[in-house]
Design goal:
- The chain has about 160 residues and is of the alpha+beta class.
- The protein has a single domain, classed as Heat-Labile Enterotoxin, Chain A (Alpha-Beta Complex).
- It has four helices and eleven strands; from the N terminus they run βαββββαββααββββ.
- The strands form four sheets. It has a four-stranded antiparallel beta sheet with strand order 1-6-10-11. A three-stranded antiparallel beta sheet has the order 3-8-7. A two-stranded antiparallel sheet has the order 2-9.
- The C terminus is likely disordered.
């Protein structure tokens, strides 16, 4: 059994083609205060990161989705595995990102309330190039399993999501 730690960037299928076109995973900048350093968020959770649910605005009201709703509204769940050694810990992020303690505490509280732990969070302070991607997987809702996506970068590739 492979006991090396793994780090995953959890996202939705709807956003994968943009990530593929860019050739890298961009640091998150939405609602990040100017004093805080944007990062790419990752998790060591091998099933799903409970804080990766999406939200959206409709008629001026923000609606937070659960995993099933995120899957349904955004065309599926996806993840990109990257080498653990290129990521930094949650504790490192709290020290070096410029996040206010109150904001870090609020994020941690959300994680705990959703049944996960910030100790599983990893970050990258810069974009993560496709040359660092280990694999791309899509979540099969029926089997509840992650399945390899045949992205062109990998052996047996297949190009964009339009071709799966």
């Amino acid at each position: 059994m492979n006991s090396k730690p793994k780090a995953y960037h959890y996202t939705v299928t709807k956003l994968l083609n943009q990530i593929f076109n860019d050739g890298y995973i961009k640091p998150a900048t939405a609602i990040v205060p100017k004093h805080e350093r944007p990062v790419v968020w990752l998790s060591m959770n091998p099933f799903w990161e409970e804080t990766a649910y999406k939200s959206y605005f409709q008629n001026g009201v923000m609606t937070s989705l659960n995993r099933q709703q995120t899957h349904d509204k955004f065309g599926g769940l996806a993840r990109i595995e990257v080498p653990f050694h290129i990521t930094s810990s949650w504790n490192n992020f709290k020290k070096k990102s410029g996040i206010l303690k109150s904001h870090a505490d609020a994020l941690a509280s959300v994680a705990i309330n959703r049944g996960t732990s910030p100790k599983q969070w990893r970050v990258s302070y810069g974009p993560i190039s496709e040359s660092n991607w280990i694999g791309v997987e899509l979540f099969n809702w029926e089997s509840q399993m992650w399945e390899p996506h045949r992205y062109a970068k990998f052996p047996g590739g297949g190009g964009s999501l339009d071709k799966i």
